[in-house]
Design brief:
Blueprint: E1 11-17, H1 21-32, E2 37-41, H2 48-53, H3 55-72, H4 88-106, E3 117-121, E4 124-128, E5 131-134, E6 137-146, E7 150-152, H5 168-171, E8 180-184, H6 188-199, E9 203-207, H7 219-232, E10 235-237, E11 241-248, E12 251-257, E13 263-268, E14 270-273, E15 277-279, E16 312-314, H8 325-340, E17 354-356, E18 361-366, H9 369-374, E19 380-385, H10 390-394, E20 401-407, E21 412-420, H11 427-435, H12 440-444, H13 455-462
Parallel strand pairs: 1-2, 1-6, 2-3, 6-16, 8-9, 8-14, 9-10
Antiparallel strand pairs: 4-5, 5-6, 7-15, 11-12, 12-13, 17-18, 18-21, 19-20, 20-21
Amino acid sequence: MDCCNVDTDKKYDLIIIGGGSAAFAAAIHADSMKKTTLMINGGLPFGGTCVNVGCVPSKFLIRAAESIHHASTSNFNGVTTAKPKINFAEIIKQKTALVDDMQQSKYMDLLPGLPHLKVIEGKAKFADKNIIEVNGELYEGYKIIIATGATTLIPEINGINDVPYLTSTTLFELEEQPQSLIILGAGYIALEIAQAYHRMGTKVTIIQRSKSILSKEAKDVSDELEKHLTAEGITIHTGSTLNKVWKEGDNIRISYTTLTGETEVIESSDILVATGTKGNTADLGLEKLGIETTERGLIKVDELLRTSAEDILAIGDVTTNPPFVYTAAYEGGKAVVNAFKAHHKAVDFSVVPWVVFTDPQVAGVGIDEREAEEKGIPHQVTVFHLKDIPRSIVALDTRGFIKLVRNPENDLLLGARIVAPEGGELLMQLSLMIKYRIPLKEIIGMFHPYLTLSEGVKLAAMSFTVDVKKMSCCAS
């Protein structure tokens, strides 16, 4: 590069900016190809969002809260329940130990087995197209992969920066349980946190701008989940416009306008911002390279994960692709292949299963009826309620439904949406049906163990053509 002189020992085949799941997947793949690689990590510890402040700690707390809920409630006559004693600080201590252990075993312990990889910590920025500056030193990469992830997007609300708001990152570090919590937003992160902390004894209120929670989903899905969350005691205000936030005494107050135009004020000991994310790109210097980003700082990439700048790719949550840890890891391997091999591999996100880990869970794969309508695809919808599934009946827990969308012209599954306890466990059968174009009649013809939730998929598929409720048990 004309602008900079880089020492020979600081030149690499590949530089990866970031240290999360996507970055590690790319580094492991590059090492298998014997590519000299430099990984530069700043911000969160190595392992990134998922292990440190996302998937691992949140699912731990969700399960902890579930155990509290199950101990204190029962649908069965003759079962006596009691409110369990909760040591919140001890729960957080165990969470932290688990995170530390997984961060070490799944990330740091891998480094000695990657001889072609060097890692350094520090904030990276582009000095030129293939040159990165970090800690005052310059490094050159023949190819560069950006995997800097995403962080909470703080909305423009009057007073928000004058109060000690929490994010999903800082909330999980609190050793003292919030007495009350106002959550701004009603996406999957907000809802998972809301239910977990409510079940641990925090008074939770959700304020959402859209008219429904999980606003990207069809109304029947969001309405079903909202019904069960409110039944547990979580307060949800949808269709609300936030006006002002301020601190008064020990509490935080929020003024908002309801859907009917009335102004309300509520207060809480703590406030959590969960209104979406933005890409960690602000200080990378992408603008001088002409790398295109969205308004939220997410990097635009093509099907080969290439940015608008030659030799620079992007992967994981910092891109506009699906923001899941498993898609990030998938992109890591693909990006290295596309960077160094002539035979490129396009990413395919047509069959990506996803789960919201509330109780009941919300899970999906493929398209729903709205997208089928928009795309002009012939479609038929069936909604099969858990009250008609034997497993759910005997468990005395019939919350939710299984919704299937098929093309009636070829009997192929287009997509599915599930609201059910542990409903995410049904996704892989449905995902395989879509990916390998297995007609529903084939699933109907297969044995499904009686009194399993997976039998519900078979019954839902049958309900396209027969009234399952008029059949005897196990009939097919």
